[in-house]
Specification:
- The structure is a single chain.
- The chain is of the alpha/beta class and 278 residues long.
- It folds into 2 domains: 109 residues, Nitrogenase molybdenum iron protein domain (Rossmann fold), CATH 3.40.50; 112 residues, Rossmann fold (3-Layer(aba) Sandwich), CATH 3.40.50.1980.
- The chain contains 12 helices and 11 strands.
- Strands 6, 7, 8, 9, 10 and 11 form a 6-stranded mixed β-sheet that branches.
- The longest helix is centred in the middle third of the chain and has 19 residues.
- It is globular, with a radius of gyration of 20 Å.
- About 7% of the residues have low confidence.
């Protein structure tokens, strides 16, 4: 039976430089008025900080929020440098592991705009990214509110420690699975939600043999695909499958370091609290 976390169902439906003035947090060297975002996560974070009006370019992979739909696409999937230059941005932001290194190097060679990259592989890194983008867009108060809200969820989850901790992994690809590394953002969300992340080493997704998943034997799986795609013998042998805990999660929510990190963390925490791990 296909099962979705209730929260995820709801979400699935659902310039020129000038002198800068410090409001709080980090003081940027200048204020930016024409920003291009080359990764869905940074686009979401800029919109989360009420700064969509500063965006002049985005990628074809950006799907949220609806307010970005009219913004010029400059990458599909690789960036069109000529189109970027014509838009005359003063700042380009991108999550570094979501852009080809050769393309990034070419963009950095161009004159007339700054380039800021992010490596968001943990909650702490997400917080740092929000603070940085808040400074770059002069949205200090909004950044503070979002960081405070996330840390409140972390504190709430940790206030009820689980023993034993549910062993959880994040997967995509069904019977040819890719699993989030134990140093990835997804693993850190599991950890801060009260679970124990399991998976390959590293901070990225890695393709693994289904038999390796059986050896890990997770109590719960957060998957970006329908549970029916995790139907091979190895998957069926896991506790997660036997107890109906292979949960489909909207792909964009699960895999992006964007605006819904707090909500994903909260949903994971609730799911762990409702489990009885034997």
């Amino acid at each position: 039976m296909k099962r979705w976390l209730p929260f995820f169902v709801a979400l699935a439906l659902t310039g020129c430089s000038q002198p800068s003035r410090q409001y709080g947090g980090e003081l940027p060297e200048k204020v930016y008025g024409r920003i291009i975002s080359l990764s869905p996560s940074t686009t979401e974070l800029i919109a989360m900080l009420n700064s969509t009006h500063l965006l002049v370019g985005r990628t074809a992979g950006d799907t949220k929020p609806d307010t970005i739909k009219g913004i010029t696409i400059v990458a599909n999937p690789r960036p069109d440098i000529e189109k970027i230059i014509k838009l005359q941005p003063d700042l380009i932001v991108v999550e570094e592991n979501l852009i080809n290194p050769v393309d990034l190097a070419k963009i950095k060679e161009q004159k007339g705009f700054d380039v800021v990259t992010f490596d968001i592989n943990s909650i702490d890194a997400w917080v740092e990214a929000v603070w940085k983008l808040g400074a770059l867009t002069q949205q200090y108060s909004q950044a503070s509110d979002r960081v405070d809200a996330l840390m409140a969820v972390v504190r709430s989850a940790k206030s009820i420690p689980l023993d034993p901790k549910p062993r959880a992994l994040v997967a995509m690809g069904g019977n040819r699975p890719w699993v989030a590394g134990v140093d990835s953002l997804q693993a850190d969300l599991i950890r801060n939600a009260g679970g124990e992340p399991i998976g390959p080493p590293g901070d990225k997704f890695a393709q693994v043999n289904p038999e390796q998943v059986l050896e890990w034997n997770p109590d719960i799986v957060f998957a970006s695909d329908p549970p029916a795609q995790y139907s091979g013998p190895a998957w069926k042998g896991t506790k997660a499958a036997k107890e109906g805990r292979i949960l489909q999660v909207d792909r964009d929510l699960l895999l992006r370091a964007g605006a819904d990190v707090q909500a994903v963390l909260s949903a994971m925490s609730r799911e762990f609290q409702n489990m009885e791990v034997r």
